[in-house]
Amino acid sequence: MDAAVEAAAFGAYFNQGQICMSTERLIIDRKVADAFVAKLSAKIETLRAGNPDDSESVLGSLVDVGAGTRIKALIDDAVDLGATLVIGGQLQGSILQPTLLDGVTDTMRLYREESFGPVAVVIRGEGDEALLRLANDSEFGLSAAIFSRDTSRALALAQRVESGICHINGPTVHDEAQMPFGGVKSSGYGSFGGKASVEHFTQLRWVTLQNGPRHNPI
């Protein structure tokens, strides 16, 4: 669980969550959800957002004030509809403290909308099939992660997760130049990286050069 907590914190809050592959939704089995939320909340307490010139600031600013206003509206919508604000949510200009919400349901905008900010939401389910349905209940499908001690079980689930990338026991924020990077559903139009870049950004053609006389049948 500790590895999952560290990966969730890095994936959700690195660069203030302003990465295409940032962690947005945490689909957690109810049997371990309380313990996970407690550990992640304790981790978030160490991630203070502030002026990057301040040595005590771990996180910095959003891209602009408008981004903060938009994200705060998403947080408020979830809380108004019954979600629990576990930690964070304080906005000052373009500085938003890292935020964790629990009990998020499909009635809330954050269930479906990408915050593109330092916000992670916990969505609880029970059993592999239910958790898989929740994970796939999204129009997006760029990067996912599965954490399990049973790698065979995790690999089987990874085959069914609707995402262009799926990391097992690692964070969603991970890229390697030689590997194909791209999403499915509303998260992209192909892949780049390594051979995938050549295939996606070029057009296969056939060019011939006739050397010498050619005999045609007519």
From TrEMBL:
One of its GO terms (molecular function) is oxidoreductase activity, acting on the aldehyde or oxo group of donors, NAD or NADP as acceptor. It holds the Pfam family Aldedh. Keywords: NAD. It comes from the Bacteria. Gene3D superfamilies: Aldehyde Dehydrogenase, Chain A, domain 2 (3.40.309.10). Residues 1-207 form the Aldehyde dehydrogenase domain. The keyword NAD applies. SUPFAM superfamilies: ALDH-like. The keyword Transmembrane does not apply. InterPro entries: Ald_DH/histidinol_DH, Ald_DH_C, Aldehyde_DH_dom. Belongs to the aldehyde dehydrogenase family. This is Vanillin dehydrogenase. It comes from Pseudomonas savastanoi pv. glycinea str. race 4.
